[in-house]
Amino acid sequence: xxxxxxxxxxxxxxxxxxxxxxxxxxxxxxxxxxxxxxxxxxxxxxxxxxxxxxxxxxxxxxxxxxxxxxxxxxxxxxxxxxxxxxxxxxxxxxxxxxxxxxxxxxxxxxxxxxxxxxxxxxxxxxxxxxxxxxxxxxxxxxxxxxxxxxxxxxxxxxxxxxxxxxxxxxxxxxxxxxxxxxxxxxxxxxxxxxxxxxxxxxxxxxxxxxxxxxxxxxxxxxxxxxxxxxxxxxxxxxxxxxxxxxxxxxxx
Length: 252
Ligand SMILES: C[S@@+](CC[C@H](N)C(=O)[O-])C[C@H]1O[C@@H](n2cnc3c(N)ncnc32)[C@H](O)[C@@H]1O
Prior knowledge:
Blueprint: H1 8-31, E1 36-40, H2 48-53, E2 57-62, H3 65-77, E3 84-88, H4 94-98, E4 103-109, H5 118-128, E5 129-140, H6 142-151, H7 155-163, H8 181-190, E6 194-201, H9 210-215, H10 217-231, E7 242-248
Parallel strand pairs: 1-2, 1-4, 2-3, 4-5
Antiparallel strand pairs: 5-7, 6-7
Helix pairs in contact: 1-10, 6-7
């Protein structure tokens, strides 16, 4: 996924996660014969289709028929229809749907915030992965959500969210929870996976003026460079909109 000049902010938001994921899958492909990817809550294929363009076979599990229809169209337009399979279902049902130890890689991006039971969803990921496989987990950071509300002048909302134990603002908030990096790491370890690499993503992407990205192509490159640099420094993860962790299921 190179910089998408048509959608510069999306490109900036996804650049670091994409680089880390692409490298992890290339590394895996060099070690094992086949890399099958399962994208849980993969939606319309923002990651699944570019992964298929790299030659990976990707199954997307998502409860939304509309998202799966859009995924199918997107895969066809990209000429990757044979590599992308959409399956309607829930993160809770992953093992039931595809079996245990069925894939070498799992992508679970921006989904743990909305599932019924994140412990159960992570346990499914640990079971569906083959030993030696890798999971890419991306979840919303509770601190950044509070900061964003303050920046938008929504101070009462910010106070409410800051005090919420689950990191959700409750009614009207599309997310049932948000995480700190420690909470996310504990969830992942609790599923028997071993975190290999963690970083913050969208440290600056959501606070840089949107208009700047539309009028100045150099700003897109500069912001992506800033995102890469901030991802290298754990101190910036506190401010990041997203928390990204690569975790391994250790070989037997
Ligand atoms: C914010 S979107 C993320 C899409 C994609 N993973 C990404 O990062 O671009 C959340 C996705 O999770 C799906 N979803 C919602 N509840 C789910 C559940 N219980 N299990 C699996 N996916 C779910 C939604 O349909 C939607 O496609």
